[in-house]
Protein: Exopolyphosphatase
Organism: Thermomonas hydrothermalis
Amino acid sequence: MSATTPPDAVRDGDLIAAIDLGSNSFHIVVAQRVLGQLRVVDRLRETVRMAEGLNALGGLDPAVRDRALACLDRFGQRVAHIPRRQVRAVATNTVRQLRNPDVFLRPAEAALGHPIDVISGREEARLIYLGVAHEQPPEPSQKRLVIDIGGGSTECIIGRGFQPLERESLQLGCIASTRRFFPNGKLGRKRWQAALTEVELQFQQFAATYRNLGWDEAIGTSGTHKALANICAAMKAGTGGISREALHKVRDRLLMAGRIEDIDLPGLSDDRRPVIAGGVLVLEAAFAVLGLEYLQVSKAALREGVLYDLLGRDGADDPREASVAALMQRYGVDVAQAQRVERTALMLFDQVAADWGLGREDRAMLSRAARLHELGLAIAHSGYHIHGAYVLQHSDIAGFSQQGQRFLATLVRCHRRSVPKSAFEQLPERLQPSARRCAALLRLAVVLHRARRDETLTGIRLSASGNTLRLHLERRWLQARPLLRADLEGELEDMLDLGVALVLDLA
């Protein structure tokens, strides 16, 4: 095991699981690590159609919510005996669109027995590409276009090897587009053409960039593409893929039905019939705008990408670390100061982690926040902690869930000055206690390094009991640093807004 591999990393024989809360279907994939590779041992899929329950105000129909929770309860039984670190659940477009996602996520996490990460569209795109690349390894120099049509969104990615180069996510999916363009179930050429023109405009936003970059092959993934490949094969219009000509034949036959409930396509399952029109519409627009002639179909999708990403987080391939390094470079972070604060923050963390119930992921997030706490200085010195927090919350940062970015942003927002009463409200309740405590540790580390010079912090010890932090310092050492003493005395009051009582113990 390498020095960068944690002692509780996934080993040969261990099981890992990925759970995908899609807008159409929920999926679970369980795999076993064998000789460094993943071997799928179980798959479950249930049609939940979350997107059907999403209303214009961002609410979720109670019947659809109950259907989703019942599915997650069953999935939870399957992963109940797999260690928490070896399971990752992600939620996509429909949960992203909810006005208050936590209203759904709290009971959903209770039913599943695991946290659920809400991921952005571009992070979803990255994971989809990762899954396809691992399942169908490309040539190192080969570029691929990958298109994933889900229930609520469509992701388009160009990548080379295992790295995505361009990622886009559109608010177009088989369910969402069917509901939007054919709300009464009627199909007709005039209606279809008007809808196609509107969908094509969405692809036009990035089409020039993609076509200029180019690709060697195009791959479709997820349910719509698999269903269309089966239909094309049944119509003897192709085997294993989708051509432009075959797609038009499917569209023409679909429109002949006149109504969605009357669609009669060979190879089409009853389960897929209610949403196939929206999927065909989106794919026809993609073919037209991107100039596609043929699309291979991959068995891999988001869930496989989540599995491989989960493995990467155990070692040097954690995408979050690469993202932090890129942010530091982009915003000109003072690396030496960031490292000083990080070392001290982690030293303090290690002294109180057990008493405060903080874990490995909390330590990693504190480390990242320490490296990024001055990111906002590139914008302005005044309120730089606010600027940095805004950037971290609202950027597309590879590897992070929306909750993860908010956690990071909250630590950066609260590392200096007063702490707003609403600072932690954006976080799920389960993350708020650890975020408050990590913020307290980051504040102390920043104060101890205000001088911005290398200094051995001798005699400093931290202990925790309940919500009380006791900072043990040598009296003579602190007396020689009047500015530090004034800063620490100021923290006695400011820390209270974190729910932490700081006590200075001078010996």
Summary: The mean pLDDT is 95.
